[in-house]
Amino acid sequence: MSYTKLFEIHNIGLSSSNMGKLLEKFNNFNINSYITKDEIQKSITQKKLIDNIINFLIANNIIEIVEDNKEFYKVVVEFPSTHKEKEFELYKNQKLYLSQKTLITKKLKSYIKKIGYIVKLDLANSTSNSGNVKLKDSLLNIEFPNFVKKSIQKYFYANKGYLIAQYGDEAFLFFFEERDAKRYLNSMIEEYKETLSLEFKKYNQNLETIQDKLYLKVFLANSIISNLIYDDYNLPSFENMGAMKYISRVEKPFKEQILKIKNINVDKFFIVSDIKLDEYFIEEKILSEDKTSYMIFYKIDNSIEY
After folding, report:
1. Residue from 18, 101, 87, 92 nearest 56 by CA
2. What pLDDT was estimated at residue 173?
3. Which of 35, 70, 105, 223 is 20 to 30 Å from 277 by CA-CA measure?
4. More confident residue, 91 or 147
């Protein structure tokens, strides 16, 4: 049984504030801990309800009587961590993050004048006014950012790549090696197709035009690493890195010169790269807004296997 059954205790007349106090009390007890009737009673102000509360907790398998002792009970469900445990977990994670940040920064310094790889993840048509506003807000500001952070985590702790920056529906990631950037794209796309793309499909189902539909845009580019920018609090970013410029200059022209002119409808995602990632990528030349010619390789919707 889940501790969430406790939220139904309002049915016996317990007020919202007392529900909060009762949950706070149980937050201080681990599963298989012991608690007395007196401790439960002291945590609320509606003292007359104590017997009803005890009966509710027993009936919903939140506590159980210890050897026929109706004043002494064992907690039989796991409640969220106590405040101190949460503080410790936060401290431990922060310490691990800072330690890893130091290693990443040190490695980056040794990669100055070497090749690095930038990946940009972005959601198409995020500024469209069509669709379910509440669902879209959740997808853009909660689910997508969480998806990105989870997708890069193992590369960060393996010293292979990290999340440079995230701004709502777009994110920039860095990788030291081409093979890791490719592996990331492969695993990320597979996870995306099994999770977020299904949520986007729900959002898109009542939208008529491709210009309103949400889907994933992926850009990959490589260039020499130079001009690291870092401080005590943030992971290093890059100033004037060629890969960043490449992505910014091909992003808009790709949609205008390839998708629009060729009348291509994107269902789930597309990938644009400055290198040919596999034999299924199509090679094209596009012109940036300043009329500079760029070679790109792109792939739309199909499964990626490297």
Report:
1. 18
2. 96
3. 105
4. 147
Mean pLDDT, residues 18-22 taken together? 83
161 and 180 in contact (C-beta within 8 Å)?
yes
Average pLDDT over residues 104-122: 94
The C-alpha atoms of residue 225 and residue 222 are separated, in whole angstroms, by: 9
Q: Measured between alpha carbons, how far is 276 from 283 in angstroms, rounded to an integer?
A: 8
The pTM of the whole model exceeds 0.90: no
Residue 297 has φ and ψ, to the nearest 5°, of -125, 130
Which tokens belong to 40?
Answer: 């439960």
Strand partners, 270: 217, 300
Answer whether 284's CB lies under 8 Å from 258's CB. Answer: yes
Helix (H, G, I), strand (E, B) or coil at 32: coil
Domain 88-300: top CATH class:
alpha beta
115-123/161-167 β-pairing: unpaired
pLDDT at residue 302 tops 70: no
**Location of structure tokens 């977020």:** 196
From 1.10.10, 1.20.1070, 1.10.287, 1.10.3470, which CATH number describes the 3-75 domain? 1.10.10
- Is the pLDDT at 138 greater than 80? The verdict is yes
In whole angstroms, give the CA distance from residue 279 to residue 61: 58
Reference 26, options 47, 53, 66; nearest CA is 53
CB distance 293 to 287 below 8 Å: yes
Mapping DSSP to helix (H, G, I), strand (E, B) and coil, where does residue 237 land? strand
The domain locations on the chain are 3-75, 88-300
